[in-house]
Amino acid sequence: MKTQRMFIDTTNFTNMKFGNFLTQNSDLKISMVIDDDGDFPTPASSDSANSRPSSDGSPPVFSPWNQTYPRTKSPCFTEFKNGDVYRSNSNYKNSSLIGSLVREEGHVYSLATAGELLYTGSDSKNIRVWKNLKEFTGFKSSSGLVKAIIISGEKIFTGHQDGKIRVWKETPKNPSGGYRRDGTLPALRDVLRSSINPQNYVVVGRNRSRLWFKHADAVSCLCLSDDKTILYSSSWDKTMKVWRISDSKCLESLTVHDDAVNVIVAASDGLVITGSADGTAKVWRRQHEEENDATKHTLEQTLVKQNSAVTAVAVNAAGTVVYCGSSDGLVNFWEREKRLTYGGALKGHNLAVLCLATAGNCMVLSGAADNTICVWRRDGLFHTCVSVLTGHTGPVKCLAVKGDPCRRSKDGGRRWIVYSGSLDRSVKVWGVSDSLGG
């Protein structure tokens, strides 16, 4: 089926198509000109829209939740009470709004935490750094809204709408906190070295080719391998690229889906999970070749094939449960023993799920285009929506979770700090506990 991408002004919150689902997400719609450094050849008259994969439309194939699963406990909430926290479980009293971070400069698309610091990325191209609920410092890229942030030691990687991955490092001599640009992936030396060999180019559109290790469209997501040595990037160009952090070298590039890749998550035991606008979520296994220090990824399992785009993926801390959010508002999950097996669907949203985050092994949070965040607790084979966090006036686009070292709940449960970024240009900070006590 031939698909087309829709381009809409970001300022109007006009309905956007996510797979085959119409929602108020303004993520998949910004027209841009990709930097053509290293392209071969690049005709001035080439149609850049033809080189981008579509994010609309997915083939009408089966959905795993068309049947009834006895292990699914998924209350659906269609009405929310006024205020910031609506608790579906009357015994659950450990969710609270701590504060809001607002800087009127753009929709918030990405979040990352490191110690006391929170990093936020927006369509203003700025990366803001917050400490103790106050703005601490920040830095700005030259182009491309910030769609993803990942932190690896002293390095900060940011993925952008212009298809680039930028690398930043903290400036230690700046007492007030400062950051400098430390490079770009791929590294300039690799671009120059490879650009003279025509065999290093792949076709990405009509009359258009590109170095195989450069993304041809927006970088949608970044993640780190379990051993923190590999950086994975996914893109609307349908590919997953594998980067070695130590020398910034691209080890592998795979076309992993038939449409834009929306999310990528690395789990334990060398597993990598990708989700796409083509309605599929796939599991890849990393194989390391010690002889030549190479890496290779092979498809191990396709979790789901459906009409609705896969928009978010998360894995619990133990790597035993995988969650996939979709543009139909459902969160499907799989439990892992020797192989991932389907466990059921969590139904707490009436619009597209845009982000997921796990807290430990028994909590998962889902943010959606309905402006809410559902807090789910897993008890054995069942999930229960114990709280719905409200207060955002725009779609919840990203979530980040970290443990709260200062507080524990009364019955000894663990407390978590949850950050939620929204297209209402704000970040809200929540306190959530994984226990049911008061």
Strand order of the biggest β-sheet: 3-30-29-28-27
Q: What structural class is derived from the secondary structure elements?
A: mainly beta
- Taking pLDDT < 50 over at least 5 consecutive residues as the criterion, the unreliable ranges are 1-87
Q: Tell me, what's the shape? A: globular
| CATH architecture classification name | 7 Propeller
Measured between the Cα atoms of the first and last residue, the distance is 53 Å
Overall residue-averaged pLDDT value: 78
Tell me about the largest β-sheet: 5 strands, antiparallel
What would the CATH topology be? Methylamine Dehydrogenase, Chain H
Give structural notes:
Strand 13 and strand 14 form a beta hairpin. This protein has a single domain, classed as 7 Propeller (Methylamine Dehydrogenase, Chain H). It is globular and about 60 Å long. It has 438 residues and is mostly beta strands. The strands form nine sheets. A five-stranded antiparallel beta sheet has the order 3-30-29-28-27, with no helix packed on it. It comes from Cucurbita maxima. Keywords: Repeat, WD repeat. InterPro entries: JINGUBANG-like (IPR045182), WD40/YVTN_repeat-like_dom_sf (IPR015943), WD40_PAC1 (IPR020472), WD40_repeat_dom_sf (IPR036322), WD40_rpt (IPR001680). This is Protein JINGUBANG-like.
Summary, kept brief:
The chain has 438 residues and is mainly β.
Index terms:
Protein JINGUBANG-like; 4-stranded antiparallel beta sheet; WD40/YVTN_repeat-like_dom_sf; globular; about 0% helix; Methylamine Dehydrogenase, Chain H; disordered N terminus; about 50% strand; mainly beta
